[in-house]
Amino acid sequence: MASPNAFMIFLVLIIGVITPALAKEYIVGDDHGWTTGFDYQAWAKDKDFLVGDKLGSHNVFKVNGTEFEKCIKPPPDEALTSGNDTIVLATPGRKWYLCGVGQHCEVGGQKLAITVQALAQPPSIAPSPFHAKKPSRKTLIRFPAWW
Asked: Nearest 5 degrees, angle CA 111-CA 119-CA 131?
């Protein structure tokens, strides 16, 4: 008969194998990319964004709700412009992003609002003699260049 500790070790190993398979990589706008004239709210509506996910970006500002609605850009030095920047979704809640180029937000609608959900805790089966690392779900979402 297997001991409870052996079962817990087995469970942790299985979670370690399955968790990376849950990772997703999103390209913002899919084939359209990060561009003007695309409905990013429709694109995001059926996606589940969780704490720990990452947003890759290209000329994107992280803003608050008011700045999002009015397309108000923060100072230029706050822009993510390398095309390889990463925004870690560290806390649950509403998040807003917009393009910082010209009138792309105001005229072209180039902005994205998402809701980030907390990562669900795995059920506890039995006390463990060691502290297993909590599984995480990592997703990379890219805002690709449009040129």
From this structure: 145
pLDDT tens-digit profile of 73-124?
A: 999 888 888 766 677 778 899 999 998 888 999 999 999 999 988 876 555 5
Q: Which of 94, 116, 97 is nearest to 105 (CA)?
A: 97
Structure tokens at 104: 């792309």
Q: Enumerate residues 6+ apart whose C-beta is below 8 A from 26.
A: 47, 139, 140, 141, 142
Domain extents in the chain: 24-119+136-142
Is the full-model pTM beyond 0.90? no
Distance CA 82, CA 58 (A): 6
The DSSP secondary-structure symbol of 76 reads: G
CATH class of 24-119+136-142: mainly beta
Could you tell me which residues are beta bridge partners of residue 49?
A: 116
